[in-house]
Amino acid sequence: MTIARISQLERRATQSGKANAGLWQLEFERQQPLLADPLTGWAGSGDTNTQVRITFKTREEAIAFCESRGIQYHLVPTTPVRMKIQAYADNFR
Fold it and tell me: Which fold has domain 3-92?
């Protein structure tokens, strides 16, 4: 059975804008283990569902998508963002 993971997209450290902030992403968990290719040694699998990522505007849309297609899912809690506000001069203390 396919299991989906629903999580909220977070802003990466290299991003300064807020274009994709607040979007929710659905991605499928791996069903088959990674196996080493005997010729190249690269890790691979026949499971292509892990390559699929679907973005939704709200969490409810992602849940409705899973329920309408009979996909089991679990929600990944978001970590709170903690900002340390300091003055530039504090770097030289």
Answer: Double Stranded RNA Binding Domain (3.30.160)
